[in-house]
Specification:
2 copies of one chain form a homodimer. Chain A is of the alpha/beta class. Helices cover about 45% and strands about 15% of the residues of chain A. The first copy, chain A, has 3 domains: about 5-45, Orthogonal Bundle (434 Repressor (Amino-terminal Domain)); about 60-155 and about 285-310, Rossmann fold (3-Layer(aba) Sandwich), CATH 3.40.50.2300; about 155-280, Rossmann fold (3-Layer(aba) Sandwich). Chain A has helices spanning about 5-10, 15-25, 30-45, 50-55, 70-85, 100-110, 125-135, 155-170, 185-200, 215-230, 240-250, 285-300, and strands at about 60-65, 90-95, 120, 140, 150, 175, 205-210, 230-235, 260, 280, 315. In chain A, helix 1 crosses helix 3 and helix 5 (about 70-85) packs across helix 12 (about 285-300). Chain A is elongated and about 90 Å long. The termini of chain A are far apart. The model of chain A has no long low-confidence stretch (mean pLDDT about 90). At the A-B interface, helix 4, helix 5, strand 2 and helix 6 of A face helix 4, helix 5 and strand 2 of B. Chain A binds a DNA duplex through helix 2 and helix 4.
DNA sequence: CGTTAGGATGCAAACGTTGTCACTCACTCG
DNA sequence: CGAGTGAGTGACAACGTTTGCATCCTAACG
C-alpha cells in the first residue's frame, strides 16, 4: 500500500506538504505541487479513506435512504444523486429500507456517524427518522416537515396542469384515486387538486382514498370510480392507473372512450401499456442532483445564507389515455 | 462522541477489555462482559468505523457495482444483496456506473481499498474491471470468466424450458432476438438455445442478433422475425419482447395468434402489458443474497475449501403471449 | 543595510480503534 | 508445598492522515 510517506520520499518533501498539495493545492508553491502530484500519480497513490475520515472528522460522503430501490421512482432519484455526488468527488451510500420504518431508523443511525449528511427520501416516519440523525445535516427529498431543508417537486402545479387538460377536453367531474395517507405526495396532490378545481367553478372533484400504490390498488379502485360518475380520473401513480385500466377493461369499459385516465410519475411503464398513459412527469434525476447540491450547501460552511430550492417543475405528458368525455 | 475510553471508565476496565468484550465476547469473563455491554448501551456507544477500519484493515463492507440501478433486474439483485448484507452485519456500497465501462473501472478502483470484497454485476468489460481490483476478493454476478468465483442463473436450462414449451404447442421454427454480444447472458442464451434445439430434431433455430436491450431493439427486430418465417420467438429480455409486439401490431399482426413470444427476466412490466408475456424468471433477490454469501466465503478464511454455487433455477412463467402456431 | 512581513515547508500531535505482549492471579498437578 | 498452566486483563504501539504551530527563507520596505 502506497502512503503519504512514500509519495513524500519520492517527491523529496515532507508528508505535510504531500497532504497539502493534494487537498489544498493553492497553499503549496506550484513547482512543489507539481512534483508531488507527479510522484503521487507515478506511485498510484490513493489516500486511505479511513485514516482521512478518522483524523479530519469528515467522510466526504453522503447517505441516501430510500424505501424501495426496485421502484423506478427512487431508482431514478438515486441515479441522479449518485452521478452528482461523483461529479463533486463525494461518495454516496444508498440504503434500501424495504418500506420498513424500523429498518429506516436503524439505517439512519448506522449511516449518520460515517457520513457528512443524509438524504432522506420519503421516510415513513419522519419523527423517529429525525431523532436517529443526532443532529447530522439532512435534506428531505419529495416531502417537507418541521422546516427541515428539502427538495420537492411541484405536485400542486402538476395537478393544476392535469385539471386544465381534462377541463379543456370537456370533463366536468374528475376523480382522484389516492395513495397512502402517510405519503407527502398524496397530501400535496389532494391539496393541489382542490386548489385547481376551485379556480374553475365548473369542475367538480371526487376524492377516493388510500389505495395501495400498486397495480392491485388501481384494480380495487376502478369500481368506485365508475360509481362516482366521474368522466376522468387522476391516479396516485402510473401503476395504479394501469390497474384501473385493467379492471375497467374487464368490465367492458374502454379507456379513453369511456373514461380518461391521468397517471403520475411517468415511470417507463407508462409508455409501454395500451393505451399509453397521459401522465405527470418530474425530472427525477434532477431531483437527485439538486438534493445532493442542497445537502452540500447545508452541510458546508455558512448555513445561514442558504437559498431555498424552489419546487421542481412537474410537466404534463399527453398520451393516449385521455380524450373527450363520452357523449351523453 | 462516546469512545472506548468513556465506556472503559464507566465500566471500570481498560479499553482493551472494552474492545474485546464487544468484538470477541468469549474472550472476556462473563461478569466483566456484562458490565461493559451495559455501560456501552447506557452511554449509547457506537464504535467509530473509520478508526476500526484504519487499525484492523477490514471494513466490514462489500461493494456492489451495477451498470444501471433503474433497470429492475439490477435493482432487484441489489435489494437482495443489501438485505443479506444487513443480516450478516455487513455494509454494502452500491455504485451505479451508467453502463459506462470507464466509470466502471473507476468505481472499482475507488471501492476496492475501502471494502473487503466486490460484487461485480456488470456485463461490460471484465478485463479492465478485474485489473482495477488489485487482488481484492471478487464475485461475478450473472456472468463468469477466468475461473473467478461467480453466481449465475441457469440460462441454458431456461432456454430448454422455453423450447420445450414452444415445441409442445407445435412450433417448429423458433427465432432468437439477441441482446448485446458482449453480454454474458446473451452468449449463454444462444448456447442454451442451440443445445436445446439439438435435443429435438424437429425444431429449427433462427438467430438474429445484437439488438439494443430496450423497447426500441424489439421494434427494430420485428420485421426480421417475420421475414425469418419463425412462428415463435424468444427475446433477450421483456422490453425487447414488448417492442416486438408493438411493431407487429403496427403491421397488423397479433400476438399470440400470428406469432408466439417468450420474454426474459419476468420484470414486472411483463404482466402489465397486453398480452401478458410468457417469460423466464429467476429469483433475483436470491441471486443477490447468494452473491453476498459467496463473497463472504471467498473473502473469509479458508478459501481452499470453497463450495461452488450451482447455477440458480430459471423457471418458465406461462402467460398470454404464447399459443398454438397459426394453422397453415 | 537592517528589519519585518508573510509565504512555503517541516515537525509532531492527535483521531479511536485493534491486537500484541506482558503481567497477575488462582488453580492444578507432581 | 512448589512449579507450571492458562484464563483474564492492562499497557501501549501502531494504522495513515490532517493540521496547529514553529521554523526557515525570500522579498519588500524604511
Amino acid at each position: 500500500m502506497v502512503t503519504v510517506h512514500d509519495v513524500a520520499r519520492a517527491a523529496g518533501v515532507s508528508i505535510s506538504t504531500v497532504s497539502r498539495a493534494l487537498a489544498t493545492p493553492d497553499r503549496v508553491a506550484a513547482p512543489t505541487r507539481d512534483r508531488v502530484t507527479a510522484a503521487a500519480r507515478e506511485l498510484g497513490y490513493r489516500p486511505n479513506r479511513a485514516a482521512s475520515v478518522l483524523r479530519a472528522g469528515r467522510s466526504g460522503a453522503f447517505g441516501l435512504v430510500v424505501p424501495d430501490l426496485a421502484n423506478p421512482f427512487f431508482a431514478t432519484v438515486a441515479k441522479g444523486a449518485q452521478a452528482r455526488a461523483r461529479q463533486r468527488g463525494l461518495g454516496l451510500f444508498v440504503v434500501d429500507t424495504d418500506e420498513d420504518p424500523e429498518l429506516e431508523a436503524e439505517a439512519i443511525a448506522h449511516l449518520a456517524p460515517q457520513t457528512d449528511g443524509i438524504l432522506l427520501c420519503s421516510p415513513r416516519a419522519v419523527g423517529s427518522a429525525v431523532a436517529a440523525l443526532e443532529g447530522r445535516p439532512v435534506v428531505l427529498v419529495n416531502q417537507n416537515a418541521d422546516g427541515l431543508p428539502s427538495v420537492v417537486t411541484d405536485q400542486a402545479g402538476g395537478m393544476l396542469r392535469a385539471v386544465e387538460h381534462l377541463r379543456a377536453l370537456g370533463h366536468r367531474r374528475v376523480a382522484y384515486v389516492g395513495g397512502p395517507r402517510s405519503s407527502w405526495s398524496d397530501r400535496r396532490r389532494r391539496e393541489g387538486l382542490r386548489e385547481a378545481v376551485e379556480l374553475f367553478d365548473d369542475v367538480e372533484l371526487v376524492e377516493l382514498g388510500d389505495f395501495r400504490p400498486q397495480v392491485a390498488g388501481g384494480q380495487a379502485a376502478a369500481d368506485l370510480v365508475v360509481a362516482s360518475g366521474a368522466t376522468a380520473v387522476v391516479t396516485f401513480n402510473d401503476l395504479v392507473a394501469i390497474g384501473l385500466v385493467d379492471r375497467l377493461r374487464a368490465r367492458g369499459l374502454r379507456v379513453p372512450r369511456d373514461l380518461s385516465v391521468v397517471g403520475c410519475d411517468d415511470s417507463y411503464v407508462a409508455s409501454l401499456v395500451d393505451p399509453a398513459l397521459t401522465t405527470l412527469r418530474a425530472d427525477l434525476r434532477d431531483v437527485g442532483r439538486r438534493a445532493v447540491d442542497h445537502l452540500a450547501a447545508v452541510a458546508g460552511p455558512g448555513r445561514d445564507t442558504l437559498a431555498e430550492v424552489p419546487p421542481l417543475d412537474v410537466e404534463l405528458v399527453v398520451r393516449a389515455s385521455t380524450a373527450l368525455p363520452p357523449a351523453r
